[in-house]
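Practice problem 4.
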């Protein structure tokens, strides 16, 4: 597994680099925003706060399960800890936008740095309840990460600096690119501290703390405060539900998102116990996953270019099909007594590749069919079944035998992916007669911005 992990990571990164270089050659040499020093200075101020926060978040990915295992917790106990994280994520996610608007976007970003730092510090404890509290804080932090930073930037961009609104997509597209690069580097960095330096699985969490402090300090020193409009939570959710039930396209998108992303959450839990017993370097494996996701994002942009001009709904269909095929593979490669870790690793890479295709395609379709005024409420309803399905899956796994339970869970996930495939087939049929679901012209950078999962 050691050689396979390093080789796969290197090959995927080489493919990503080749596609990015090809994309750079096809872009205009000079764009208006490049010639505006005030805008570039504003961008750098945003990235100095946001990118360290992302790095701290990604560093915690490779060794979370391994840490709990290192503390001698059973798989069922670890599953409950993950459920605590997912449940708190959905609960705080429902109110995070309102909280951020009332508290202030800058204060919310500083609060994120504080709560996530505490979340990392409690990883030093072996007490189960303390670790559960840490997972709850992690859920709050994740909700703030995916709401406060973007909200602060959009307000400053439009209200304070009055830059053209189309330049917002430029900033988020570049942030998405660096998010992918940081994610790959985070896996290798976590592996270096945990394995090469022999500091153990808690080391990446301790390395995250200085980055979180740096992000908070830069926000305090360099950012101005801004606030959003107060919105009644009940009205937001009520309007979102009306939109969801009145438009078949929105309902189909919500169904696909709930089914697809709940499977991804279960995959996040299962990949470590599947590969770790076979000596896989977890940090490098994680880097390989992130490189596969980056490759998927690059292929998405290539497929939508003038040369191929595919539609986002085509790529969404491909992503769900690829997910189903990967999960079907895993039902055989995780068969007790006949495990094939190399085949499982390949299937996991294909899952991440499907994510790289799925998230920008889903982001494009949501922007097209969900009205801006209802988007927050609709997303709240999307997240609810998503997290409930993920938590239910982990609770079922908690009550099952370790060896047969993993294979059975992949079988259930394959069935869920098949349901998502049926839903996306219906959406594909609708797109043939619905111009809103199709690109009328080659996409710009706006369609490449949504390359990471939302909370």
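Answer key:
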């Amino acid at each position: 597994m050691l050689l396979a992990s390093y080789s796969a990571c290197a090959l995927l990164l080489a493919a990503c680099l080749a596609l990015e270089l090809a994309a750079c050659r096809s872009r205009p040499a000079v764009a208006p925003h490049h010639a505006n020093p005030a805008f570039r200075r504003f961008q750098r101020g945003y990235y100095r706060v946001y990118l360290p926060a992302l790095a701290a978040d990604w560093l915690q990915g490779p060794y979370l399960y391994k840490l709990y295992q290192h503390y001698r917790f059973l798989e069922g106990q670890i599953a409950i800890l993950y459920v605590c994280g997912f449940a708190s994520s959905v609960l705080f996610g429902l109110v995070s936008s309102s909280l951020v608007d009332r508290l202030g976007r800058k204060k919310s970003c500083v609060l994120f740095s504080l709560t996530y730092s505490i979340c990392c510090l409690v990883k030093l404890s072996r007490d189960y309840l303390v670790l559960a509290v840490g997972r709850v804080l992690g859920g709050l932090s994740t909700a703030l990460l995916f709401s406060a930073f973007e909200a602060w930037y959009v307000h400053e961009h439009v209200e304070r600096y009055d830059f053209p609104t189309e330049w917002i997509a430029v900033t988020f597209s570049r942030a998405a690119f660096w998010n992918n690069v940081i994610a790959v580097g985070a896996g290798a960095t976590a592996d270096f501290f945990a394995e090469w330096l022999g500091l153990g699985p808690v080391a990446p969490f301790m390395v995250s703390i200085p980055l979180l402090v740096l992000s908070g300090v830069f926000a305090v020193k360099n950012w101005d405060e801004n606030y959003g409009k107060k919105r009644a939570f009940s009205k937001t959710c009520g309007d979102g539900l009306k939109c969801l039930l009145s438009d078949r396209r929105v309902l189909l998108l919500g169904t696909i998102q709930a089914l697809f992303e709940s499977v991804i959450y279960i995959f996040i839990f299962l990949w470590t116990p599947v590969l770790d017993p076979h000596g896989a370097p977890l940090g490098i494996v994680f880097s390989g996953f992130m490189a596969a996701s980056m490759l998927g994002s690059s292929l998405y942009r290539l497929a939508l270019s003038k040369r191929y001009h595919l539609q986002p709904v085509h790529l969404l269909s491909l992503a769900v099909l690829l997910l189903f095929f990967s999960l079907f593979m895993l039902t055989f490669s995780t068969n007790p007594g006949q495990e094939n870790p190399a085949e499982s690793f390949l299937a996991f890479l294909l899952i991440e590749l499907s994510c790289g295709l799925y998230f920008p395609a889903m982001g494009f379709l949501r922007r097209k069919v969900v009205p801006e005024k209802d988007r927050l409420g609709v997303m709240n309803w999307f997240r609810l079944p998503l997290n409930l399905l993920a938590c239910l899956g982990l609770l079922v796994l908690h009550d099952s035998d370790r060896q047969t339970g993993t294979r059975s869970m992949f079988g259930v996930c394959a069935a869920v992916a098949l349901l998502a495939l049926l839903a996306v087939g219906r959406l594909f049929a609708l797109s043939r007669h619905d111009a809103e679901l199709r690109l009328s012209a080659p996409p710009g950078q706006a369609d490449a911005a949504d390359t990471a999962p939302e909370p």
